[in-house]
Design brief:
alpha/beta, disordered N terminus, Rossmann fold, 6-stranded parallel beta sheet, 16 helices
């Protein structure tokens, strides 16, 4: 915000996304924006969408889906934000839900930032329908800016919708003294492995559990901590029981704040052999604390980490590959520590909150008229 400009005169931006207390990457992203210097330059507010962070009945969900576009219209007319920042993903539920919000925002002549947090690539989303692909292309072109997380996505969207304004802004984390890697990392007899995030089988959690079982047979001690909640929790518990890994695998529920930082400080390896990704905050947070990622080369992960420089890349759906990677790190603690130091330096130098603030400030300013910027 320019010197002498009051908060009331600052340009208003309405952010659409889940409850900020929800255990999701998009909620983390919203919290990053609200806690950054961006909130000093723009009047940020939120319109909550989606089911994450809500407790509602099936009837309540139907009513919300029917009436929330109207509620957004009322909010836009009442608060008159100049920019509507929609946080979405290219999956079936999120795309169709947020299409209504995009339509309302454009009908009221608001400038729209359409940020896509992972999901399918555009050519893959409607493979059998030329009409629906044309609609998606129209959505991208009609948005005033489409924000993507990864270079791979930029290339795919550029080919699909060359007329759309595409901007790459990667996620970030706060890197401070509490993120410094512990001097004791890698010193325990067992390898400490963790997963933190939504509990869904597409994150490769079941393959990681199987890898722990394979290593136990080989006499390699691994302890896996699984933090989070989600629809696959019971399946995960059954898988742990089926492999008789109750003493090697622990589910600890959702972790926030100091509890989450404490997990990263006592963890050697992040297991993230996902089938698909955007840019997971767990990856950035873990690497910032010197945790070595064993991850799949999907989404923006290859933008962040190089194989055998910051961590180890493994193919998705391959528990044997996960076991080999974990086994190598368990056997070579000097490699573990070297990768951990490089991982921390990578995040500190390239994925800071300051960088995120500067990029979104530049983007928002570019959507305003000269009079609105004053």
């Amino acid at each position: 915000m320019a010197e002498g400009t009051s908060a009331r005169q600052a340009p208003a931006v309405l952010l659409l996304g889940p409850a900020r207390t929800a255990p999701s990457g998009v909620a983390t992203h919203l919290n990053q924006l609200f806690s950054s210097a961006l909130s000093e330059r723009f009047r940020l507010s939120q319109f909550q969408v989606g089911s994450e962070g809500r407790r509602e009945s099936a009837a309540g969900t139907v009513l919300r889906l029917l009436f929330s576009p109207l509620a957004l219209m009322v909010r836009l007319l009442r608060t008159r934000p100049r920019i509507v920042h929609i946080n979405t993903s290219l999956d079936f539920k999120g795309y169709w839900r947020d299409l209504a919000y995009l339509g309302v925002s454009k009908a009221l002549a608001r400038r729209v930032v359409y940020q896509i947090h992972g999901g399918a690539l555009p050519e893959e989303f409607f493979p059998r329908s030329g009409v629906l692909r044309a609609l998606l292309r129209r959505v991208l072109v009609r948005s005033d800016a489409v924000v993507l997380l990864a270079e791979r996505e930029m290339s795919a969207y550029r080919s699909f919708a060359p007329q759309a304004r595409l901007v790459r802004i990667a996620n970030c984390v706060r890197v401070d003294e509490s993120s410094e890697p512990s001097a004791h990392k890698g010193s325990a007899p067992h390898l400490a492995v963790a997963y933190l995030g939504r509990l869904t089988d597409s994150k490769g959690i079941l393959e990681t559990i199987e890898a722990v079982g394979l290593l136990r047979v080989r006499g390699i001690e691994v302890r896996l901590t699984i933090a989070g909640s989600g629809e696959a929790e019971e399946l995960i518990r059954r898988t742990v029981a089926a492999h008789r890994l109750e003493t090697q695998v622990q589910l600890v529920g959702e972790l926030f704040g100091e509890a989450k930082r404490a997990l990263w400080q006592r963890t050697d390896v992040l297991a993230l052999p996902s089938y698909h990704e955007g840019l997971p905050y767990a990856l950035l947070e873990a690497m910032a604390c010197g945790v070595v990622p064993v991850a799949s080369a999907v989404g923006a992960i290859p933008d962040v980490m190089q194989d055998r420089v910051h961590g180890l890349l493994v193919p998705p759906r391959d528990p044997q590959a996960v076991a080999r990677a974990l086994g190598e790190l368990a056997a070579d603690r000097e490699l573990l520590r070297r990768l951990g130091r490089a991982a921390h330096q990578r995040i500190a130098s390239g994925y800071s909150l300051r960088r995120l603030t500067e990029q979104f400030t530049e983007l928002y300013q570019s959507l305003l008229t000269p009079a609105e910027r004053r």
